[in-house]
Design brief:
Elements lengths: L1 E2 L5 E2 L3 E7 L5 E8 L14 E3 L10 E2 L8 E5 L2 H11 L3 E3 L3 H5 L9 E5 L12 H16 L4 E5 L8 H7 L1 H5 L1
Parallel strand pairs: 7-8, 7-9, 9-10
Antiparallel strand pairs: 1-2, 3-4, 3-6, 4-5
Helix pairs in contact: 1-4
């Protein structure tokens, strides 16, 4: 369910995900509305919506599977996390934004984390927010949890994320 521009309650197909705090407590619901005409997102101004969180979102994620053998991947967008899982068979969680990526807290049993960064187009100051967020998380974990091996992967094409890379060419994903 969602409210349209006129404030009317409407129904549309959606992909619904649960946001969990680091301890696994459900904190929020994220919805991506789907098109009934194409294979993509709905043709509406705001096709992604979240509820008001019931707690702190910092450190948490949308958990798409559970880590295996101490290995976990993390990406910003849900679509990117699903693409990483499809291409690598690795569990990949989504954190939805660069600011939430910086504060991500992996579970205690994780000893290998791959951060699948977005290779964003630089802003007016030349900063690539996706890469900077991934590098900030890697630095934080190297200081706070040095037992975790952290790898940052950056798409080879600027302005692209790993979902884009998978959609462009499966070979480009493995680069």
């Amino acid at each position: 369910w969602y409210k349209n521009e006129a404030g009317n309650l409407c129904r549309a197909p959606a992909f619904v995900q649960m946001w969990q705090a680091p301890d696994g407590t459900p904190v929020n619901i994220h919805k991506i509305f789907l098109s009934v005409k194409t294979d993509g997102k709905a043709e509406m101004e705001k096709c992604k919506l979240m509820m008001k969180p019931t707690g702190r979102m910092t450190g948490g994620a949308i958990r798409i599977g559970e880590p295996a053998f101490g290995t976990l991947s993390v990406a910003t967008g849900v679509e990117t996390a699903l693409s990483v899982t499809e291409a690598t068979s690795q569990v990949c969680w989504s954190v939805l934004s660069d600011s939430l990526l910086r504060g991500f807290i992996p579970p205690q049993d994780v000893n290998h984390l791959t951060i699948w960064a977005d290779n964003d187009t630089p802003d007016a100051q030349g900063r690539n927010s996706g890469v900077l967020a991934a590098e900030a998380l890697a630095r934080k974990l190297n200081q706070e949890r040095p037992e975790i091996e952290v790898v940052v992967k950056i798409p080879p094409i600027q302005g692209k994320d790993w979902n884009d890379m998978l959609n462009l060419d499966r070979k480009a994903f493995y680069g």
